[in-house]
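Reposting from the mailing list since nobody answered there.

I have sequence plus structure tokens for a pair of proteins and want to know whether others read the tokens the same way I do. The first protein:
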Amino acid sequence: MALRCVALVVATAVSTSCAVLEKREEEKRRAAVRAEALAAHATWRAKAGWRAKTYKNEEILAKATAENAAVEISLSDQRGLLLVDTAIAMDFPVATGKASHPTPAGKFQVLGKQKDYSSNLYGKILDATGTVLIPDADTRTDVPPEGAMFAGAKMPFWMRLTDTGVGMHVGYVPGRPASHGCIRLRREAATQLFELLKIGTPVVVADRAPALAAGVRKTR
């Protein structure tokens, strides 16, 4: 009986040791992938005209799943990053909130998704003939006159981040802050993110994306 116990303890110890070694090897492999992806991204950003373009690392993108994806938004340079297992897979232009309606910084997650969505806060007020009376209406301060109606701004591929109406969606991206607080995306990036991200996907909004400020690191 004693010999069996000893054998069991030894076998357990060996199994645990192997598991630890395997975990360390996997961490080294992932670190190498992240470093390689970061270097490839830095090379791309060193080229002229990168700010108007979208970067894609197809090898990393091929490994993307709803479970290993995360997003970082960099307010200072108006860019978004898609991370796959913390490696940079995409770098795309965004337009965040202008000075009067800044996009809040912090750690968020996707709370909801809706392909066809219209704002219940911002839009236009139209008269009965469809003529625009107020082009940049806010339902909290602008009341439609009799016979007029409010038409919410269209926000296709909506991905909600806060209960106060901040989210990511298709919109005009002029290379500078321009929204009422949301994160506008070009259609290509928005559709790709919409298809990939799930409810609960982490989204970090910061002056500078953590993946660029201090190297790629986990955001979960």
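The second protein, same order (residues first, tokens after):
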Amino acid sequence: MNTIVTIGRGPVAAAVLAVLLGACVGAGSQPTSSPEPTATPEASTRPTLAPSPAPPLTQSFTSTLHGISVSYPEGWTAQAATEPWTDRTFPLLFLVPQADFLYDQTLTDHLFLTMASQPIADSTPQEWVAEQMASDEGCAATEPIAVDGATGLIGADGCNVAAVTTAGRGYWIELLTSGDEPSVGSTYDLAWFEEVLATVQLQPEDAVE
């Protein structure tokens, strides 16, 4: 049997009806929860490593072909020139036979010293030095320097090249650091290059013509 409930009329009936409707609506709806806020990760910063100090200049190299001796770091390799440097202004590329090379065994052509010499012939010392420095496009700015009493020019603004003359012979000394290794350039900078130059001894009388 179906039972019909009669609520009647009036304020009481209206209140009862409201309660019944609210119960029905509440039963059919599900509570919703707002998503938890996602925490934003803090940006991580990569630590900046201080450049390693350069090893001491405990090794000595003497070039019998170019008439020059110099101190260089332990752990480096020395390759002596086997041919004279006869061209006036050509780039002394890594391990060409016309120059002496002192280089880091691990970094090789990313860190090395180059040395070469030649008679200045009929050029004045100033002319020869200026010609050599002009052959390096990165050496637009230069400063005077003395290497073992010989005067000449040294590059500035990242150009680690020195050109000097003595007794009718010109000397080219260069430190090359690759831009692919920024930390290397921070360690082996102009100040370090000048430390190397302070150990140089020029012996033009011993050079091979």
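Reply #1 (J.P.):
I read it the same way you do. The domain at 59-206 is CATH 3.40.1000.10 (Protein Transport Mog1p; Chain A).
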